[in-house]
Amino acid sequence: MVRRLSSLNFFELMAANELIIEEWNGSSSTKLFKTATITASPSLCIRSSFLEVKQLGNYLCLCKLQGFPSSVTPDYLPFQVWDSLQGLSTYIRTMLSTKALLSAIGVGEKSATVIGATFQWFLRDLTGMLGGVLFTFYQGSDLDSNAKMWRLVADLMNDLGMLMDLLSPLFPSAFLFVVCLGSLSRSFTGVASGATRAALTQHFALQNNAADISAKEGSQETMATMIGMALGMLLAHITMGNSLAIWFCFLFLTVFHMYANYKAVNCLALTSLNFERSSILLQHFMKTSQVLSPVQVSSMEHVLPTWTTRWISRNSKLLHMQVDLGLRVSSLGRQELMELLHSSGSHCEEVKYLLVERKGIISVIVHKDAIATDVLQSYIHALVMANLTDGNKSTHSESQAWMDKQYEVFVQKLKSSGWKTERLLAPSLIWTANWMSKPSDKKID
C-alpha cells in the first residue's frame, strides 16, 4: 500500500529537515551538469549553477549534438573548428567577387539591358551544370577513396572560381569566357565537396548518428554563412572604389582559406583502407611486424595529389603507385599470358584474383565473383609483391608464402588497431575475369 504525503506532512518535513532538490542537464550518454539547486528550509531558495565556459562553448559550437563527445570520433571537433573558419572566409570573399561580377554584367549602368544580363547569367549557370556532370562521370568513383585530397582540391577550385569572377571586370572583351571558366571551376567544387562531406559524416558517426551530425553541420554552416555575409557586406562597403584594398583583402582571405582547409583535412584520422593507407600500413608491418594507428597514418599520407608532392618524396617508395587494380585480360600479350598461367599454378582455384608483373607494375586481375574481402586481399598481395620486387627477380612464390603465413595476422592486427577491414576504398572495377580448369582430353596409353 502506497502512503501519500499530505501537504501538512510535507511542510512538517521541511520544518524538521532541509530538503534539497538539484536540477541536472544531460542524458545517459553525455556528461551531466548541475544547473540549479532548490533549497526549502523553511523558506524557498533557488540558486542557479552556470555551465563552465568550455562546456558552454561546446554547446554553442556543436549545436546540441546528441551524445557529444562519445557519439563522434575525436577528430570531429578540431575539423569543425577549422572548417567553420574556412567557410567564414569563403562567404566574406563571395561578397567581393559577386560585387565585381554584377558590375561587369552591367548592374547600375543605363546602357545595360535586362535580356543581355539574363543571357550571360544563364550561360554561366549552364556551363557549371555541364561541368558538374562531366566531373561526376570521370571522377565520381574516386571521391570516396580519396576524401581528404578531394576535399582540399574542391576548395582550391572554389578559390579559382572566385578569382575568375573578380577578374571578369578587367577583361570586358573576354568577360563571358572568364565567367564561364569560373563557373566551371565551382561546379567541380560542388560535386567534390558534397561527396566528400558525405564520406566524412559516415566517418564521424560512431553511434549510427550520421543524420544528426549532418543536420548539425548544416546549422553550423548556416551560422557561418550569416556571419560571413554580414562581414562581407561591411568589407565591400569599406573597400568600395579602392581596387588595391579589394585585391589585398581577397588574396589575404584566400591564403587563410587554404591554410584553414589544410589544417582541417590534416586533423582527420580516417579508419578506412584506401590505396595509400594500405601501402603505408603494409610497409611498416613488413619491417616491424607492428600496425600503425589511424592517427599515425594520417600524418604520413598525402593530402595533395601525389604528383604535386612527388618531388618531396623521391626517396620514399610509394607502393600504391606500383599496383594496377582491375587489369583487362585481353590487354596482355601471348608471353605474358603464358607466364600468368604458369605462375598461378594450383592457386588459381583457391583465390579470386591473379597477379601479373609488367615492367615493375603489379597488375591485378579480379574474378567476376570476387567480394569486398577478396578485393582487399588481392590488393594487399599485390603490395607485398611490389615490395619484394628486385629487378627482374620473380617474386610470385615469395609473396604467396608471405600471404599464407602473415596475411591473417596482419588483418587481425589492423582490426585491433581500429581499422575497418571489411572493404578497400577504390574506384569501381570496370574489368573482371572468370577462369576455370577443365580435365585434359588427351588419352594416356
Which features does this protein show?
single chain, 445 residues, mainly alpha, Growth Hormone, Chain: A, 3 domains, three-stranded antiparallel β-sheet, 14 helices, 6 strands, 8% strand, flat, UVB_sens_C
What does this protein structure show overall?
This is Protein root UVB sensitive 3. Belongs to the RUS1 family. The chain contains 14 helices and six strands. The protein is mostly helical. It folds into three domains: 33 residues, no CATH class; 193 residues, MFS general substrate transporter like domains (Growth Hormone, Chain: A, Up-down Bundle), CATH 1.20.1250.20; 143 residues, no CATH class. A three-stranded antiparallel sheet has the order 1-2-3, with no helix packed on it. The chain has a three-stranded mixed sheet with strand order 4-6-5. A hairpin with a 2-residue loop joins strand 5 and strand 6. About 2% of the residues have low confidence.
